[in-house]
TrEMBL record:
Signal peptide: none
Name under which the protein is recorded: Ice-binding protein C-terminal domain-containing protein
Entry-linked NCBIfam families: GC_trans_RRR (TIGR03382), PEP_CTERM (TIGR02595)
Pfam families: PEP-CTERM
Organism this protein belongs to: marine sediment metagenome
Ice-binding protein C-terminal domain location: 196-217
Amino acid sequence: MKWTILLLLAVAGTARASVVYVDLDPDQTAYTVENPLPWPSTPRIAVPTTVTVDGQDFQFRHSGVQHGPGMWYPGQVYVDGSAAFYGASIWGPGPYPLKPFVTEFAYEEPIDGSAAYRSFAKLFYNGGGDMGEVAVLPWVGVRGYMGIRLGPEPYRYGWMQISVSNDIYPDGGVVTIYDYAYETVPGRAIGAGMLTPEPGTLALLALGLGVVVRRRR
């Protein structure tokens, strides 16, 4: 005998029953393949992927880092969309321009208008060689949540669960996108990885709207 409890959230639009969740099945991936053409063609070819969230595209793609003649490899991955980011300075022989990197949000951490967003940011940058640049690898070997902003104004906010494999050299590794969710109410925060109202809100909904109990045999 099994009991299933269902909360009646359908009429709770004002109480955060407004999160849209999409599980990508199969997962989407961005990676590189070997280029059959000889040098000076790049030895790897990027195979990007685009995830469309409520009509807004987020493209994940590899890009090359030049380490000298014949020493090219896909040393960075860009996210082209509107993602929350942080800044990290890359230093070589002299100061390089600020390179923005996608922010990783902890589970349940609020994603809202207080974060900075940019339409072009990186998951990692693996510089070096004669360029004298350093590596910044915040997402390498990590599975976590990035914050997204959906426009136009008034903005809506959401999250996307992604990972970057450890084997980024020399082929750039594999970026995997698993699922995403977003708020349909403009300006409302969403917790990273969250699909439902917060626990306190759920309790109030259960009391105010009733509980349906289904008995299975």
